[in-house]
Amino acid sequence: MTAPQYKRILLKLSGEVLMGEQEYGIDPAYVVRLAEEVKAAMETGLEVCLVIGGGNIFRGVAGAARGLDRTTGDYMGMLATVMNALAMQNALEKLGVPTRVQSAIPMASVCEPYIRRRAERHLEKGRIVIFAAGTGNPFFTTDTGAALRAAEMNCDALLKGTSVDGVYDRDPKLFPNAVRFDTITYGKVLSDNLKVMDAAAVSLCRENDIPIVVFSIRERGNVAKVLAGEGVQTIVQEES
Ligand code: UDP
């Protein structure tokens, strides 16, 4: 596969990858490992935007199931993403990578508020920008937040690092003979209800012609491999 010519990417990591082998929370050693991957991506000359989920700390739907209002749970989930963003900022800066966190929910003494033009300037100056607090609205996910920011920041691709190495026709954890796609269209992901990202996120990427690259972040060095057009991945795009 030839290396795609990306200039600016948005990397979306689900909160779960920050917990390492733990059952929940943040494993600082694991965050450092992820920060090294992000640094490697930046060192290829790319401008890197980052969105991190919050599922390792709090999920709104789970809170709602236990009696919290869905909206309250969702706001708690968004706050969780800010904690993850701060942990990642800390790890990146320890590696000497200048990083700014911008939150969709303003919290002036913790990080910057989301300001698109300011984020643009940070990227031009070679800083990584971590977009926290998802879309800032309940009933959304950080996948949708990632697609939104990728569109706003004119990213060439949305890289989704998860614990699975691509998009399969069935859940590979339940069906050992599930087949992985190399490429797949947005339409098929939506019509077959394949578990890549939620439908709102996939639609937003389709409307803005942003390819979604799904790959495993658990494999060391994989971000750089994927950026070089190597490694195992699935690309969701208009025509395969
Ligand atoms: N969330 C939200 N609006 C957003 C983004 C996130 O309400 O725009 C809440 C929602 O409750 C979600 C939680 O934050 O469950 C954590 O985000 P997500 O589940 O997307 O994290 P991930 O699965 O990527 O770790």
UniProtKB/TrEMBL annotation:
It holds the Pfam family AA_kinase. ATP binds at residues 12-15, 55, 59, 162, 168, 171. GO terms for cellular component: cytoplasm. It is found in: Cytoplasm. Keywords: ATP-binding, Cytoplasm, Kinase, Nucleotide-binding, Pyrimidine biosynthesis, Transferase. Pathway: Pyrimidine metabolism; CTP biosynthesis via de novo pathway; UDP from UMP (UMPK route): step 1/1. Residues 7-216 form the Aspartate/glutamate/uridylate kinase domain. Inhibited by UTP. GO terms for biological process: 'de novo' CTP biosynthetic process; UDP biosynthetic process. Its EC number is 2.7.4.22. Catalyzes the reversible phosphorylation of UMP to UDP. Homohexamer. HAMAP family: PyrH_B. NCBIfam families: pyrH_bact. This is Uridylate kinase. The lineage of its organism: Bacteria, Pseudomonadati, Pseudomonadota, Alphaproteobacteria, Sphingomonadales.
